């Protein structure tokens, strides 16, 4: 039995990664498409064997309600549209898988959680890294306390972008610049591997003056998160620097280093630990799995077995709270305290 998905937005992620990933899924299949372009709909539907009557526009999106093939709506739209399409989708009686970042504000995230709860539907945020084998292994190593207490994490996610007209460079559509788009991977993955929540953040943002890419959104964001027990996490992200996607956990008796940590593939995991008087460094090889397929099948399993997803709406809400605190700190030039929550106990 496979759970049927409607994909909303036929942009880069849907066409290049998600639709091909369904080919590797065991419990999920694409059964409907939503797009503003009739030509694209026709072409993509034909390619993936989707019925013409299961192709929708943004105008008749709510008609998905009457399509019994569709159990999940997967929102793959610009960030500012996530809240509206999640809420309308839940009201149409469907479970929702929503791309990261969950939305552009805490208020929107709360409204999305509320709408899904009210409709009795599940909500999952597509944090693919939490389904990626190397990153999961790092979390397991941390849980097993293999290197002693963690002290510091450094995480970086940088890439360069070129098109100032793209929605990612418009504040209204993107919500922010490098932070919510790619810096979010540093933020979310560090919370994931530590398994605790930050209590205070300090942030700094910068945009090269005169660069049209960054007239509305930040180019760089550098921030520090302070976790319980004095653990410090230093992160930085930049939209105008050559690709690098990595983190390193420094613990009492060793370190864990993950290169290509946030990439679609090619993760390289290395550890080092004190072994008597010597240092033992290990390169760990894991079989590669399509992380999008693993993530989508996880949600299908939750639906088939009536379980809560591993990365529910509350996970996206918490990241949004932290991002708002980072921006506040950057504006005000001082650290910002976060409300104490023990969220991980609540939903893990
Ligand atoms: P994209 O620009 O390639 O695609 C967006 C789609 O939305 C396009 O088909 C576009 O036509 C459509 N659209 C509808 N209304 C629009 C409007 N008003 N303005 C602009 N486009 C509009 O973007 P993408 O890279 O596919 O990103 C889509 C979502 O997926 C974003 O939320 C992004 O953060 C997320 N994403 C996640 C990952 C991941 O690894 N999980 C990777 C890339 C993108």
UniProtKB/TrEMBL annotation:
Disordered: region residues: 333-348
Domain Gfo/Idh/MocA-like oxidoreductase N-terminal: 4-127
Keywords in alphabetical order: Oxidoreductase
Keyword Calcium included in the entry's annotation: no
All copies of domain Gfo/Idh/MocA-like oxidoreductase C-terminal, residue ranges: 139-338
A GO MF label: nucleotide binding
Similarity comment: Belongs to the Gfo/Idh/MocA family.
Protein name: Dehydrogenase
Organism name: Hymenobacter crusticola
């Amino acid at each position: 039995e496979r759970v049927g998905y409607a994909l909303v937005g036929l942009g880069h992620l849907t066409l290049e990664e998600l639709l091909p990933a369904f080919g590797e899924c065991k419990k999920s299949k694409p059964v409907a498409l939503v797009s503003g372009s009739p030509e694209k709909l026709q072409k993509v539907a034909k390619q993936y064997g989707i019925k013409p009557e299961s192709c929708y526009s943004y105008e008749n999106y709510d008609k998905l309600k009457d399509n019994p093939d569709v159990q999940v709506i997967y929102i793959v739209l610009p960030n500012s549209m996530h809240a509206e399409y999640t809420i309308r989708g839940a009201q149409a009686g469907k479970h929702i898988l929503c791309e990261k970042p969950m939305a552009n504000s805490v208020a929107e995230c709360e409204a999305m959680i509320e709408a899904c709860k009210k409709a009795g539907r599940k909500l999952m945020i597509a944090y693919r890294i939490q389904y990626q084998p190397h990153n999961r292994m790092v979390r397991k190593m941390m849980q097993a306390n293999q290197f002693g207490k963690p002290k510091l994490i450094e995480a970086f996610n940088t890439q360069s972008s070129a098109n100032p007209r793209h929605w990612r460079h418009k504040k209204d559509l993107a919500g922010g610049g490098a932070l919510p788009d790619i810096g979010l991977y540093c933020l979310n993955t560090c919370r994931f591997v530590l398994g605790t929540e930050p209590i205070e953040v300090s942030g700094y943002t910068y945009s090269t003056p005169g660069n049209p890419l960054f007239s509305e959104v930040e180019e760089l964001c550098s921030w520090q998160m302070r976790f319980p027990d004095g653990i410090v996490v230093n992160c930085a992200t930049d939209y105008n620097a050559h690709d690098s996607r990595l983190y390193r956990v420094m613990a009492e008796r060793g370190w864990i280093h993950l290169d290509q940590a946030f990439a679609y593939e090619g993760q390289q995991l290395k550890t080092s630990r004190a072994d008597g008087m010597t240092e033992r460094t290990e390169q760990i090889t894991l079989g590669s799995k399509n992380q999008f397929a693993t993530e989508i099948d996880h949600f299908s399993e939750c639906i088939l077995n009536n379980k809560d997803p591993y990365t529910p709406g509350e996970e996206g809400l918490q990241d949004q709270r932290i991002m708002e605190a980072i921006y506040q700190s950057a504006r005000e030039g001082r650290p910002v305290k976060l409300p104490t929550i023990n969220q991980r106990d609540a939903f893990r």
